[in-house]
Amino acid sequence: MTLSIENQNKLDAFWAHCVKNQYFNIGYPESADFDYTNLERFLRFSINNCGDWGEYCNYLLNSFDFEKEVMEYFADLYKIPFEESWGYVTNGGTEGNMFGCYLAREIFPEGTLYYSKDTHYSVAKIVKLLRIKSQVVESLPTGEIDYDDLMKKIAADNEQHPIIFANIGTTVKGAIDDIHKIQKLLKDAGIKREDYYLHADAALSGMILPFVDDAQGFNFADGIDSIGVSGHKMIGSPIPCGVVLAKKKYVDGITVEIDYIAAHDKTITGSRNGHTPLMLWEAVMTHDKNEWRRRIDRCLELAEYTVKRFQAAGIDAWRGRNSITVVFPCPSEHVWKDHCLAISNGLAHMVLSGHHLDHDSIDGLINDVIADAQKKSA
Ligand SMILES: *Cc1c(COP(=O)(O)O)cnc(C)c1O
Fold this sequence. Notes:
Elements lengths: L4 H17 L42 H14 L7 E6 L2 H15 L4 E5 L5 H9 L2 E5 L9 H10 L6 E5 L11 H10 L8 E5 L24 E5 L11 E6 H4 L4 E3 L4 E3 L9 H12 L2 H24 L12 E5 L3 H6 L3 E3 L2 E5 L8 H18 L1
Parallel strand pairs: 2-3, 2-4, 4-5, 5-6
Antiparallel strand pairs: 1-7, 6-7, 8-9, 10-12, 11-12
Helix pairs in contact: 2-8, 3-4
């Protein structure tokens, strides 16, 4: 079967659109500098990772071996012994967050989930889907959770089993909730460690913090119970994906038997993408830690350069510590539309990602924002 000429033209036009715009992206944190040509030949196979990579599966075209090695890599990166962890390659950060919240709800069915106003919108969906009791906590101007309001709400609810949804890099401001502080406040309030659950939403910063010298707390050694990360953000991939990792002892309680493929399933979906584990595997096998460090350093340096240029021009721009997200007052509509900037509540942001290689690649945008601000104040 071949396409009609009309449909072929339509597809070719979309190809041209993708080629032209592949590096357009600065409002969203997707790195576009990946190269998985080595994996293109696998697109002819129906690879499916239904079930658990750790168990025998009757469906032969799975990439479980690769998925397992991806999980070993992330267990090491997030400081949990591999044997004490379990996780899988997800469809993205949202699924990882849902998995973490699901585990928490199974452990504390009556627990209330606390998340800040700056939390990603998907969490409001997750609490509805899972029917978890929840409370929205105020945020600080930096985008961090308001610690006093968090503790006030836990006390007012007389909540014995709080589920804390911590942001490790918020979507709009790149803010990182201080999980050491949260744990200390919970301890001071008399809530024992085994009586609360702490999930880290590290969609973006989960691939930044392991590679900086002065990282805020975010990993298992810092006290979390689970973590979700996006694969299509800092790492970069042509198909949305991610990783979720949790303490194994919690996961054992949620296993479902699937008799017709002779497997056990702990994951959220049935069929699972078998190609994305290959991509994440290739990404982590082809970049050593020094390369990630260099890449993150470059993004951080470009973010700092952007802040300095804006500030020098009188624009009130800033970024959080270890954040590649630069926040500034929303420019005129034609500027944010021309450059596909993400805007929210009067703020715009730029995310300096893997494919932003040098000042030249962002100067055009910076100059436009500065010119716009100067026109407005003239
Ligand atoms: C992007 C993002 C998500 C959602 O991740 P997806 O991969 O888009 O599902 C969740 N939380 C934060 C903080 C994000 O930035």
